[in-house]
Design a protein that fits this description.
single chain; 255 residues; alpha/beta; seven-stranded parallel sheet; four-stranded parallel sheet; 13 strands; 29% helix; globular
Length: 255
């Protein structure tokens, strides 16, 4: 016990930045527990700049499905709502695999709408905290049209964006008419679709420094046999896996 306290004391002497670096590799469910170590640690978790929250964490998996989902949502809400206002969220990793959960079994006909509202609130929160890396895995048991918040499509700090919205079918992502992602360099989309090729093209064109585009198991509802045109002078790597394209996937380099 004495040795454990001594080790904790030595770590506590480290500057906040170094402690944050150590905690960045740990799930948030464990990071928040550090608040009981000492007064020095009481609020450190509120300013950790890497947030990792996984629905399959042991902290949630021991509960029945409805209580598990409720506890997960409450936990994410508290982590973001109690966060230090001036602390950036450099990286946010959220995993919520519900593809095996039937909405009817939850006895909540508007469950996905409720969850979408919370997910959008979480995204808006990390955007306000100058998010740089955003990774969301959100698998559901039905096809679904999902409107991500416009603030995400106009985030000035976002550099890396990974989004998986699949389940038993594609989730349709609505892209706003106005998009501006000036620092986005890497995009990885899986198991989602766009309302038409123009929406996908518009999104790519809003990324003036895009270097990597990954598309896996992603469909586009073709409109009048239009092509999905990737118009970029900065793109270095394009990866397409089982995309299901019905028309030609074109890459256009502009000078």
């Amino acid at each position: 016990m004495k040795q454990a306290r001594s080790s904790t004391g030595r770590i506590s002497e480290l500057p906040d930045g170094l402690i944050h670096g150590i905690l960045s590799f740990i799930p948030m469910t464990d990071v928040v527990k550090t608040c009981i170590l000492s007064k020095r640690w009481r609020y450190i978790w509120t300013s950790v700049n890497t947030v990792r929250i996984d629905f399959d964490s042991p902290a949630f998996e021991k509960y029945p499905i409805i209580e598990r989902i409720t506890r997960f949502i409450d936990f994410v809400d508290k982590v973001l709502n109690l966060r230090d206002d001036v602390a950036d969220v450099n990286k946010f990793y959220l995993t919520l695999p519900l593809s095996q959960v039937d909405e009817e079994s939850l006895e909540c006909p508007k469950f996905y709408d409720i969850l979408a509202s919370r997910l959008n609130a979480w995204i808006c929160s990390v955007v306000r905290h100058n998010i740089k890396t955003l990774s969301i895995t959100f698998r559901i048991s039905a096809e679904w049209t999902f409107e991500l918040p416009e603030c995400l499509f106009n985030c000035k700090t976002l550099e890396t964006w990974s989004l998986e919205m699949g389940g038993r079918g594609y989730s349709l992502i609505v892209v706003p008419k106005s998009c501006c992602l000036p620092n986005l360099r890497s995009v990885d989309f899986e198991a989602l679709s766009f309302e038409n090729p123009g929406a996908a093209t518009r999104l790519v064109s809003s990324c003036p420094v895009l270097e990597y585009l990954g598309i896996a198991d992603t469909g586009i509802e073709m409109d009048n046999h239009q092509d999905f045109i990737i118009d970029s002078s900065t793109l270095e790597e394009l990866v397409v896996c089982n995309g299901g394209w019905q028309n030609t996937l074109m890459a256009k380099t502009t000078s």
